[in-house]
Each structure stands twice: as structure tokens, then as C-alpha cells.
């Protein structure tokens, strides 16, 4: 069989297997896995690792923050940076503004993404105002292939528990997954005022202002709401040992609960917030950075499978008056934009500190970086694996190259991981058989990436937890969870 492109001589890794083979690609799909394949075009992958392209499932691109501030990265710079970090696909957020219809929200993000992205993309729909007409629009969102929502339990854009239950129920009915930012709003605002009112206003006080207890309380509540509705739930950016334990326990109970953590909670600590002057502002993100004990516990949970994905939570705001200091330089920590970049560093850091240092194996790395996201967000097996018939979304890595982290390809003026020694970097990245990055050079054009119509979340392996009160067999026949 003739192929458009053959990747020859590499070591292939999926979420379950590592083996030597060539990959033959035709019409953007993997057509053949075998030996001695021929094609019009050939990439020599001798000595390289060939893996499913990363899927970045938590990043903020061309999105206004809660403060109304636009991220530094648009879909062009954001997707380019993602590709240089080994990603073939990403799923940023489309954020509903209070009062805005879902149709208008999605049209806004289509306009931001379609002309600019160099890799394939979809969105998670952030719901901030789930009024009855918005809930009525949601079935149409699934028809469009957008099958995940996100809600906040804090910020002005938070939802009530009742609204959260409504969203979980609609998502479950349509096979969707609800993501949640879990921190207790009143605990945070009370702590922040208690600190700032007493003059503790420097960036480092962002950490005590958001205690781990606020995350633990909200995760526990969110899991309870998920269990009540028997609806799948992804707890994003888990940053505490107790939060991770709650996710692990819920999963052991059979609940449809999934967890995500992020590199910043594995490689940075709250002491980074205490850098001289206002440099600590670089490290203001939410939930906040914790400590080295937390890092060890989170790694243990990664290794044992508590977390399905490790995502960057790339939320890029420059260290200038367009970003972190848009409310002025000498302001208290509450007025500094929240978030840090990391879309390009996520996979190299996880490879270097995870695979090279023996904390996880190569197949776990593939699962955490691509396959599990594809399954949970309704893209598997078209994406997230190396299989015949799958999209040729492929990252070719040099597992031995060592670099000191410096400038990235995003639109940022700092890299929070700058100076770290990182071994293992992607050299060539394909989306649907098309080179996006070729031997370290960008070759794709804005708009080359396409929208991915997603399907139902894959919940295999979990049983759900039907409560007696919601089960007609044990609640006198009341059918309430259709
Ligand atoms: N939550 C996120 O998920 N990203 C950036 C800031 C935040 O609070
Ligand atoms: Zn969040
Ligand atoms: Zn985020």
C-alpha cells in the first residue's frame, strides 16, 4: 500500500504498549502499522519516540478573565506554543458572560479560533449564568459536538449548588462531562480580607488567602453533587493532598469522578510567590502553589492513577500593565491577574521529571498527556492513540535532548519554569498527518487546525453510584434522573 507519509524506524508508545514499527499515513489517518513501509514522503524517526500527539485539555486562550482581562495568547500564539510543546490538539474554554446566550458565546469563540489555530481544537463551555433559556440551549451544544462544561464554585461567576446540580443532570443525560473549579468562595474572600485589612498585601499572601481547606471543602461538596445526580465530574487543578484523597476515594467508591492536576503544583511552591519586589506576581495562580510535601503526595497519586490528566492550566498574563499589573503595580494581591503560562512546558516537564526520573512509565505518560483526555472528552479513538483508522496526530520526541528552559513560543514575557533542566523534547508534531512543527521549525499556517466534533465521554471502568433515594427500585418508584 502506498502512503502519503511514512514515519520510519521509531519506537512507538501508546497508553498500553511500547513497540518498534513504521507508521503509514494516508489522507490524514493512520493507514498501516508495520515494517518496511514506503511512502511519498518519509520522516526518519530512528532513535526517537513516536507517541500520540498531546491533547491539552485545560488552557485559557483568547479568553477574558473574571476581571475582564484578555489573555496574552490568542489562538495563533497559543496553538503554536502548544505544538512546540508536543500537542496536536487542544481544548481551551469558551466562556459565557453573564446574560450572554450560548449561541453567541460559541460564535465569539469560533471567530477567535477558526482563522488562527495551527492545531485541531474544541472548547469546553464555561457556564456562568445557567438560566432556563441557557439550559434549553444545551442539547444543541451537544449536537454541535461540544460535550464538556465547566463551572466555578468561586468568583463572581460561580454557580449555586442548585445550578450545579442542573448542569450535572443535563450533561449526564447527553453523555457530557462537567468540570469544576472547586474552592469555597466565602472562605477565600473572608481570608483575603482578613489578610489585606491587616496590611498583608504582597503577592506572597495570595497563598494563605486561599487555604487548602477551602479546596478540600469544595471538592467534597462537588463530589457529593456528582454522586447525587450520578453524573460524571472532572475536578480540575487539584492542588492539595486531601483533595487528591477525596478524588481517589470517590473513584474507589465507583463514582464517575475524575481528577486533574497541573505541573505548577508539582514543580513550584508558595515560596516562589516570595521573590523580590513584585516578581512573585508571576506565580499568582488559583488554586495557589503549595509546598514540597504536597508535590510528593500529588506525584504518588499520579503514579497510582488518581489523576486521569495532567494539564497546564495555561492562563497567560504578561508581567506588565497589559496583564498582571493591569490594575497598577503597587496593588494588593487580590487585584493581580490570576494565572501562569505552561502550555509548552507541560509535556517536556512531565517527561523529564516523570519518565526520565522513573516516577511514571512511558505508557502512563501517554495516558496522562493524550489518551485519557481523548477518552474523557469524547475524541477517542479518533484521537489519543496510534491505531489504524485514527487521526495521524503524532508527536516525535528526542528522549535524550537536554535543554535549560527559557523563552517559549507563546506571547508571554516570562516562563515560570525558566532555568529548569529538562530532558526529552518533541521535535516534530503532526495534526491529521500534516506537519505543524518539523524538526523544530514551525511549518503550519494560522487556520490549518480544524474544529473537532466531539462525542460522549467514555466512562468505562466505573460503575456509578446510584443513591437509594434516586433509584426507583428503592425510593417508592420515583423516576427523577432521566
Ligand atoms: N482557574 C483556572 O482554571 N484557571 C486560571 C485561574 C483560575 O482560577
Ligand atoms: Zn480554575
Ligand atoms: Zn484554568
UniProtKB/TrEMBL annotation:
CDD domains: D-HYD
GO annotation, cellular component aspect: cytosol
Region of interest called Disordered, as start-end residue ranges on this chain: 462-482
Modified residues (N6-carboxylysine): 150
Cofactor(s) the protein requires to work: Zn(2+)
EC number annotated for this UniProt entry: 3.5.2.2
Annotated Amidohydrolase-related domain residues: 49-436
Protein name per Swiss-Prot or TrEMBL: Dihydropyrimidinase
UniProt organism field: Marivita cryptomonadis
Taxonomic lineage from the root: Bacteria, Pseudomonadati, Pseudomonadota, Alphaproteobacteria, Rhodobacterales
